[in-house]
């Protein structure tokens, strides 16, 4: 993550923990893509550092800090699931073996498991013993969006890291420090929730244009009909950003629901407000709800069905039937 300097007050509880000695088995909870991941980066850097500062940060100069900056630290291992996938037992077995060895550079080995709730049951059981009796010079940190999905036997062995609550204003300010103007910073957080790190990543990947193109496709589809839907299904089933498209569709459906309920002030897709206002009355609340459920289930459908094109075809053909008036008359504008 880029330049992240937390507020000293927010860092204080972690500093205290560092000074008194970090627990060996830790749990941090927070939304992925928020700035909390930055806190964990700082924490692991400080623990691995040869000479942390008085304030509890890594020095930035020692061999450990330099290796971290090059993403080549032999005593750090970060395990993470790909979006929509589980963390498999083999991955964790390797990690459990790795952590048994003596650290090579720093005074400890640091294993971090991001999206820990995505561990399979077998994977979770495989790390249980290590959490129970961690090797002498080792730290294991589980980072989870949904700690409630962790096995109780795992949760009970972990000590929670006191991460601060992130304010929206702080996230907006951070995005602006990364060079994104105020309007776009606000729009990104509105569209993606309080997840500035994720917002920055998407911004750099051309999110604004990409999002516009996806939205355009969705809004135009009812006027274009079945052949266009099948073509789009084929195209989208090949993209690695399918879960992102899902987020976009979910946002669009939620906006239609808000419009139907007159909740104008909560609309997230302001760019398309006029168009949505024309479309929203055409669709029934029940049909919207059904579409919402189907798109929410997309990761499950993809996991159960090896034919991704078929999954997308069903979703997009259903999307057409949401707007029967638009199919028969085409878009009027
Ligand atoms: Zn250092």
From TrEMBL:
Catalytic activity: DNA(n) + a 2'-deoxyribonucleoside 5'-triphosphate = DNA(n+1) + diphosphate
GO CC terms in record: DNA polymerase III complex
Annotated ranges, domain DNA polymerase III delta subunit C-terminal: 207-319
Enzyme class: transferase
EC number: 2.7.7.7
Single annotated GO MF: DNA-directed DNA polymerase activity
InterPro entries (UniProt xref): DNA_pol_III_delta_C (IPR015199), DNA_Rep/Repair_Clamp_Loader (IPR050238), P-loop_NTPase (IPR027417)
Domain of life: Bacteria
Keywords from the named record: DNA replication, DNA-directed DNA polymerase, Nucleotidyltransferase, Transferase
Gene3D superfamilies in UniProt: 1.20.272.10, P-loop containing nucleotide triphosphate hydrolases
GO-annotated biological processes: DNA-templated DNA replication
Membrane-crossing segments per the record: none
PANTHER family: DNA POLYMERASE III SUBUNIT DELTA (PTHR11669:SF8), REPLICATION FACTOR C / DNA POLYMERASE III GAMMA-TAU SUBUNIT (PTHR11669)
Name of the protein in question: DNA polymerase III subunit delta'
């Amino acid at each position: 993550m880029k330049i992240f300097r937390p507020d000293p007050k927010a860092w204080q509880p972690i500093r205290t923990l560092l000074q008194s000695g970090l627990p060996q088995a830790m749990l941090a909870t927070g939304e992925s893509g928020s700035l909390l991941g930055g806190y964990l980066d700082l924490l692991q850097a400080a623990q691995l550092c040869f000479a942390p500062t008085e304030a509890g940060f890594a020095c930035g100069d020692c061999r450990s800090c330099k290796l971290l900056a090059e993403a080549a630290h032999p005593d750090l291992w970060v395990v993470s699931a790909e979006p929509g996938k589980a963390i498999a037992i083999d991955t964790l077995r390797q990690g459990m073996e790795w952590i048994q060895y003596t650290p090579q550079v720093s005074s400890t080995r640091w294993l971090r498991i991001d999206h820990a709730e995505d561990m399979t049951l077998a994977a979770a059981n495989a790390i249980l013993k290590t959490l129970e009796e961690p090797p002498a010079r080792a730290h294991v940190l589980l980072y989870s969006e949904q700690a409630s999905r962790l096995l109780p036997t795992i949760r009970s062995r972990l000590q929670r890291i006191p991460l601060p609550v992130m304010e929206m204003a702080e996230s907006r300010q951070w995005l602006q420090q990364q060079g994104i103007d105020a309007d776009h910073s606000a729009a990104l957080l509105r569209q993606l929730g309080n997840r500035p790190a994720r917002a920055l990543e998407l911004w750099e990947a051309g999110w604004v244009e990409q999002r516009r193109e996806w939205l355009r496709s969705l809004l135009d589809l009812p006027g274009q009909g079945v052949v266009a839907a099948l073509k789009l299904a084929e195209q989208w089933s090949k993209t690695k950003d399918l879960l992102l498209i899902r987020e976009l569709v979910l946002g669009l459906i939620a906006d239609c629901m808000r419009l139907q309920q007159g909740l104008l002030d909560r609309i997230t897709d302001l760019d398309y407000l006029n168009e949505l206002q024309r479309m929203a009355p055409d669709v029934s609340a029940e049909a919207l709800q059904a579409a919402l459920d189907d798109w929410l289930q997309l990761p499950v459908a993809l996991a159960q069905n090896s034919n991704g094109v078929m999954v997308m075809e069903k979703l997009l053909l259903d999307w057409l039937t949401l707007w029967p008036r638009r199919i028969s008359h085409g878009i009027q504008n």
